[in-house]
Design a protein that fits this description.
Layout (H helix, E strand, L loop, with lengths): L2 H10 L24 E3 L15 E5 L7 H5 L10 E4 L4 E7 L10 E6 L11 E7 L8 E8 L2 E7 L7 E11 L2 E4 L8 E4 L14 H9 L2 E8 L2 E8 L7 H11 L10 H11 L9 E3 L18 H10 L3 E4 L1 H15 L3 E11 L6 E6 L13 E13 L10 E6 L5 E2 L2 E2 L1 E5 H5 L9 H9 L1 E7 L5 E7 L6 E5 L6 E3 L1 H4 L6 H12 L18 E7 L8 E9 L5 E12 L5 E14 L3 E9 L1 H4 L8 E10 L5 E9 L6 E5 L8 E8 L6 E10 L3 E11 L4 E8 L5 E10 L6 E9 L3
Protein name: Coagulation factor XIII A chain
GO molecular function: metal ion binding; protein-glutamine gamma-glutamyltransferase activity
Subunit structure: Tetramer of two A chains (F13A1) and two B (F13B) chains.
Length: about 725
């Protein structure tokens, strides 16, 4: 044997690393070769496999209207293959070449996954035919026999691997095992089963299962605490190829197949692979308002385009921000059968050193010094909750778990977050894995305003204990309304339980810096507040600052207003308004001062979400004390109008029009419109060169809806001057 051929033989073998006899099995895509004839020894010359029982055909009952997909709640998946949920029986029919004789014939089924199937890893599963099915364990029994045909009921284990299995039927003969040929038509997808009590993701409420597993559209709440906005998001977990794309994500994350029955492991690796940091994951984040060579985060209307693009290109899709990461993560979880919901935390702390304290440093004039202030308050932040038991934690910490795919901080060396038990966060038990201290800080930090004196000492001017995590919401079950879940994360502000939870968190190692009370003596006899007038993008509005002097003294307040254009993450882009005035405060009275903000002052620099952040700081001349207050505010953004024409019947052509009127005092250029609706139409895109001031654009699209029922159309408009313009419409598609 020459040198070269031996090298070639070597090349075919996958690399081993001395630690294991087989390479790691972390691809659902790869397959091994299974012998059709597995001989026990020498085969006698007269042996003819046709003399023995052999399989002519297998019927998987895999059509959407047939028994398996109906009983397993998988009839909505747009896939020709069999899709079932674990821990619940499914039916198949086998046609043999002659009637099956139980006394002499012996056959069994084999389910295989990946390239190196092993029985002890759960990647090679022989299923024997018996008389009874035990709940939650692999087994098969014959339910009906007629001529050459048998019907089998097959039970899968409630803990088995989630993914795509290959099915073989094996028949025993005295000389060896005969197997069916590899046939991809009998491939079986196994999913998590929230309907099965033995499954780790079991959810006992049918309405909640319909919402958190089967609903393919949802709502993203954004804006800010004083001005909550909402938009629809199409999850599309049942659309064509999405299930394969989601399984590919686990291959990409190199999760061992044997770990894919465990929702905790799946959530942990998925939270890393959803973002592109450190593993070339699905979405590249961008928060700097420039989205060259990509799609602006606000333009996406759903997850399907993103997942399909990633599945085909294997390159990160540009660009996303928190609700895009959360929307795609939600699709992934629901697609695999893990109950999931998208959650928004208003005034979310991004605490760089996890000390439960956001440090805002003021300069001499009393405005925030952006050079040394590193922490930020996001107007809102979206993450996901996934429902599962936590056998790795003490009893009581199962249920909703926070998982977050937005890259904020690293965890065990990668950008990922969770799963962290919501119950553990509420009670301050942040010692339980994974990443509970970070999530605890997002909803519980204090904001500390401090100023450096000329002599270098730091003086604390104000501590705001209630600004962070004021409101945590998700979409209600079975409707489009908002459901508040703040109580799931924290006790009532100022309650005894809240203080105990905080002390528990500090005991378990959340760093909390103590602030010297002697240094912090605020001005208590004057209250200051301000209100921002509700305004539509492109118009002027005013900010009203009010003082209430509760003392019997005359005070003079040197007041400074700073208006900043901010990213929704609370990071300032620039200051567009500076205004200072002196306010005379009469004893025991209130006074109000208006500051006008003109559209010309803010329009040229406006970012994506039309977010402003106002600081008002007042120095009381007589006492030298400072009053400080800050608020975020969002402008009203115009919406798209969607209408339909013609009959709304599945299988018949209908037409959809999207209308938009430009409210700005300038022409919009290079405008992109997107329209999608799961079950009605695939995403359509159109580009328009310009829309002059006050003129209306009308775009008509023809489509043929696939599925009857209540469906949602979602549209978005995007251009450099104007983003986050959405519209939606509920449509009832009739049966033909």
């Amino acid at each position: 044997m020459s040198e070269t051929t031996s090298i070639n033989v070597e090349k075919k073998k996958p690399p081993l690393n001395g630690r294991r006899a087989l390479p790691s099995n972390n691809s659902n895509d790869e397959e091994n070769e299974v012998p059709e004839m597995e001989a026990f020894g020498l085969i006698p010359r007269g042996f003819n496999p046709k003399d023995y029982l052999h399989v002519v055909d297998i019927n998987m009952f895999k059509e959407p209207h047939e028994i398996n997909k109906q009983q397993h709640h998988t009839d909505k998946y747009y896939s020709p293959k069999l899709i079932v949920r674990r821990g619940q029986p499914f039916q198949i029919q086998i046609d043999f070449n002659r009637p099956y004789k139980p006394e002499t014939d012996q056959f069994w089924l084999e389910f295989l996954i990946g390239r190196y199937p092993q029985q002890n890893k759960g990647t090679y599963i022989p299923v024997l035919v018996g008389d009874v099915l035990k709940p939650g364990e692999w087994g098969a029994k014959i339910t009906h026999k007629e001529n050459n045909t048998i019907h089998l009921s097959i039970m899968s284990s409630a803990t088995c691997i989630v993914g795509k299995f290959r099915l073989y039927v094996a028949v025993w003969t005295p000389f060896g095992i005969l197997r069916t040929q590899r046939n991809s038509a009998t491939d079986t997808y196994m999913l998590f089963n929230p309907w099965c009590q033995q499954d780790a993701v079991y959810l006992d409420d049918e309405k909640e299962r319909e919402e958190y597993v089967l609903n393919d559209v949802g709502i993203v709440f954004h804006g800010n605490i004083n001005d909550i906005k909402l938009r629809s998001w199409s999850y599309g977990q049942f659309e064509e190829n999405i299930l394969d794309a989601c399984l590919f994500l686990m291959d990409k994350a190199e999760l061992e197949l044997s770990g894919r029955g465990n929702p905790i492991k799946i959530c942990r690796v998925a939270s890393a692979v959803i973002n592109s940091k450190d593993d070339s994951g699905v979405i590249a984040g961008s928060w700097d308002n420039t989205y060259t060579y990509g799609v602006a985060p606000s333009a996406w209307t759903g997850s399907v385009d993103i997942l399909l693009e990633y599945y085909s290109s294997k390159q990160p899709v540009r660009y996303g921000q928190c609700w895009v990461f959360a929307g795609v993560f939600n699709t992934f979880l629901r697609c695999l059968g893990i109950p999931a919901r998208l959650v928004t935390n208003y005034s979310s702390a991004h605490d760089n050193n996890a000390n439960l304290q956001l440090d805002f440093f003021l300069d001499d004039e009393g405005k925030v010094d952006t050079k040394i202030t590193k922490d930020s308050v996001w107007n809102y932040h979206c993450w996901n909750e996934a429902w599962m038991s936590r056998p790795d934690l003490p009893v009581g910490f199962g249920g909703w778990q926070v998982v977050d795919g937005t890259p904020q901080e690293t965890s065990d060396g990668m950008y990922r977050c969770g799963p962290a038990s919501v119950q553990a966060i509420k009670h301050g038990h942040v010692c339980f894995q994974f990443d509970a201290p970070f999530v605890y800080a997002e909803v519980n930090s204090d904001i500390v305003y401090s100023r450096r004196e000329k002599n270098g000492t730091q003086v604390i001017e104000k501590i705001d204990r209630t600004h962070i995590g004021q409101l945590i919401v998700t979409k209600e079950v079975g409707g489009d309304g908002m459901m508040e879940i703040t109580e799931e994360y924290k006790f009532q502000e100022g309650s005894e339980e809240e203080r105990l939870a905080l002390e528990t968190a500090v005991m378990y190692g959340v760093k909390k810096q103590t602030t010297q009370d002697t240094m912090y003596q605020p001005q208590t006899d004057v209250d200051m507040d301000f209100q921002v007038q509700k305004a539509v993008l492109g118009s002027d509005f005013k900010v009203t600052i009010t003082f209430r002097n509760k003392s019997h003294n005359y005070y003079t307040a040197t007041t400074y207003l700073s208006g900043n254009i901010v990213f929704y993450t609370g990071v300032t882009k620039n200051e567009f308004k500076k205004h200072s005035f002196s306010a005379k405060l009469e004893p025991s009275s209130s006074s109000a001062f208006d500051v006008v903000i003109k559209s010309s002052e803010y329009l040229s620099d406006l970012l994506d979400q039309a977010s402003f952040h106002f600081f008002v700081t007042a120095l009381i001349k007589e006492t030298g004390k400072i009053l400080a207050i800050q608020k975020a505010t969002v402008l009203e953004i115009p919406t798209l109008r969607i209408k339909t024409q013609g009959e709304l019947v599945a299988g018949k052509e209908m037409s959809v029009t999207v209308e938009f009127t430009n409210p700005l005092k300038q022409t919009l250029e290079y405008v992109t419109l997107r329209l999608e609706g799961p079950g009605v139409l695939r995403t359509m895109k159109n580009e328009f060169r310009q829309i002059p001031t006050n003129s209306t654009l009308i775009w008509e699209v023809k489509c043929i809806p696939k599925r009857p029922g209540l469906r949602k159309l979602i549209a978005s408009l995007n251009c450099d001057t104007l983003r986050h313009v959405y519209g939606e419409l509920n449509v009832q598609i009739q049966k033909p």
